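Reply to dn_fold:

You asked what the input looked like. This is it:
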Amino acid sequence: MKKIIVGRHAYFGIGSSLVLATCSTLVLLSYAEQKTMGFMLQRSNFYIAWAFNALIAFVLIRICVWATRLLDYRYPWPRSYAKRWPKQLCLVILLPLLLSFLMVLVYFLLYRKNILQTTYFKRYLLLDTLGVVLLNAALFFDHQRHHKPLKIPKKSRKPNTDLKWPLSVDQIAYIYAKNKACFAVDFDGEELFWQQSLAKTLDCLNRADFYLVRRSFIVNRKAIAQLEKQDKRLKVSLISPLAHSISVSRSEAQAFKNWWYYSAELPEMDKAE
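and this is what came back:
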């Protein structure tokens, strides 16, 4: 079974999630029932409801944390806030609320109660929604607090515009070196002999769009289909019809992911003036 990769930042641990779930449900019950704490603590039904609601809250917190870490890996905040928010809304807010409703429905069915005849929709649903939204806000600010902004690279020297290439920059999928010779491959998979060295070629390319891997492979961002973790390496799969993959070593993986996730947001500093 393929392993699902999530972001490194763990947010809340299991212990913190349990404490948060227990305290938040106690506050929720005392507010929603609109009765004194002393009165509720004398009723055995209160402890059952508290335990069940704490369990629901704990499960929701862990789902929200896991889903947020999944999105951190696939759609990091610094890469595009506009792309991240809709996915955060669906996966980390609406889905947990739906699961919460289903678990509460099961709870009332066990007691043979009609959920429409309870105060769930009048009081608890709004409080649950508010709690999930506040949890998402806490996760977001925690991420921002621990996130280290990418250092913007210095402006490279002016490219040599006298070089003549058999392909335009937009047609280059990747360039590689083999047996002291260089070859370029376009997006149709056609391979051409490349007269310039990789170093000279890289100086003429926009670093936000092209990246040098293993000192022998320059890849275009548009040619990358997906990233996958493979053992201790990072596997970079290219789009069809290229049908090629690049293995990035563990030492290079973080720098490559920084380029992949963040450099698209940087100003185009490497283009000719």
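The helical segments are 14-33, 37-41, 44-74, 81-110, 120-146, 198-203, 250-262.
Hope that clears it up.
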